[in-house]
């Protein structure tokens, strides 16, 4: 018997098979989508090809063959390289294609890609995601999307296959600003908690008991509750590294500057991560910033 539900699903091109991209594509394959993948590390593409994906030799071929094109890549420079230029997504996308970028990048570069896509008649959706690699694996991410609303509606079945919540927040770059606003709160929370914990430690509090009480207090956000167990064990394995948080906080400060918004607190948080990520904390989880505050207070880690 023919699976008509699979036949009716759009073809998807996916660029970027890092910590987030890989589990997201696995969920798309489980949902029955026809997915073509590309990554600079060809071994990752080949690994997914063994699980039912198609491996593309380059971005141009992927864009020409698929209806919906996604990218989730590290930064502004990577997005410009992937999206623009004669071998990029926009120049090679087929008529009626939708290009969705799920990276955390600046509104300014996102606008450049949007403008280029418009010139080619390609709909561009900014759709950064929130959530850990563990949530990505469970298809429990949150998607913030902005761009042409009709294109968002076309993408919704794909978003629903990889996330628990999908928010359409506007027709331009609103999703970029929302992602940066949330990451500002996340990065700042790590620094505030680090200072609070170091103060308590200096005052003679037991580390685990202090965290238990904080977790039951009015100050316990879902983020803090999520980080409680690793913090109690001082397990700083990177769900999201300090180096990555430095990149995001830099985006926050720069976006605030461009928008004319004073970002005094964000600037201080970025400064903290800049010092720490340029040392031995670069690849540790960003909540390990507590080590830097402890060291500044004369506490040996």
Q: What would you say this structure looks like, in words?
A:
- It is a single chain.
- The chain has 15 helices and 9 strands.
- With 301 residues, the protein is of the alpha/beta class.
- The strands form 2 sheets. It has a 6-stranded parallel β-sheet, with helices on both faces. Strands 7-8-9 form a 3-stranded mixed β-sheet.
- Helix 7 links the parallel strand 5 and strand 6.
- Helix 11 runs antiparallel to helix 12.
Which features characterize this protein?
Rossmann fold; single chain; three-stranded mixed beta sheet; 2 domains; 9 strands; alpha/beta
Structural class by helix and strand composition: alpha/beta
Q: Runs with pLDDT <50, length 5+?
A: 1-5
CATH homologous superfamily assignment of the largest domain: NAD(P)-binding Rossmann-like Domain
What is the helix fraction of residues, given as a range? Answer: 40-55%
Rg value: 21 Å
The share of residues in extended strands comes to 5-15%
Oligomer: single chain
Biggest sheet, open or closed, and with what strands and sense?
6 strands, parallel
In sequence order, what are the helices and strands, one letter per element?
Answer: HEHEHEHEHHEHEEHEHEHHHHHH
The shape, in one word, is: elongated
Write a brief structural summary.
This protein has 301 residues and is of the alpha/beta class.
